[in-house]
Amino acid sequence: MPLFTITMRSGRTVAEKEAISSALHEASVSAGYPEDDHFQRFISLGEVDLHISPLYPDLQKPRSEHVLMIEAMISSGTEEERKRLLLSAIVTRLQAAGTDPNDVMVFFGEFDRASSSFGGGRPALPVEVRPKT
């Protein structure tokens, strides 16, 4: 269950946000997460509220004004290989949707599922992730 938080500069159109949303969901499904496991939130900030180093750590060209800072919250204990698979799928799908890979920043955070609920006052159940392909 990745919970994606996408932080970006204000001014993106609804169509651009939908393309980003679709790309992230397709990436998640391709990495083995269930089709109906779809949780995202978008945060749009003014230029003065979002400061991102243009070249850190060693980019060959500066990031553009279309940079996406993506936080992917996943279950604790998720294998490194699955994280790499998801990262690769995110970059590939976003590039196909028109985002320069240079503008894609991804940060994984992990949480213990016992510390969360998807609703109904019930603790989160384990997610059945398909085997890696």
What is the fold's blueprint, element by element?
Elements: E1 3-9, H1 14-30, E2 39-45, E3 68-75, H2 80-96, E4 104-111, E5 117-119, E6 122-123
Parallel strand pairs: 1-2, 3-4
Antiparallel strand pairs: 1-3, 5-6
Strands, total number: 6
Helical stretch tally: 2
Mean pLDDT metric: 92
Largest sheet: 4 strands, mixed
Q: Give helix and strand order, one letter per element, not per position.
A: EHEEHEEE
End-to-end gap: 18 Å
- The proportion of residues forming helix, as a percent range, comes to 25-40%
CATH architecture: 2-Layer Sandwich
Quickly name the level 1 CATH class.
Alpha Beta
The main sheet orders its strands as 2-1-3-4
* CATH-defined topology: Macrophage Migration Inhibitory Factor
Structural notes for this entry:
It is a single chain. This protein is α/β, with parallel strands linked by helices. The protein has one domain (3-59, 80-118): Macrophage Migration Inhibitory Factor (2-Layer Sandwich), CATH 3.30.429. The chain contains two helices and six strands; from the N terminus they run βαββαβββ. The protein has a four-stranded mixed beta sheet with strand order 2-1-3-4, covered by helices on one side. A two-stranded antiparallel ribbon has the order 5-6. β1, α1 (14-30) and β2 form a beta-alpha-beta unit. The chain is globular, with a radius of gyration of 15 Å. The mean pLDDT is 92.
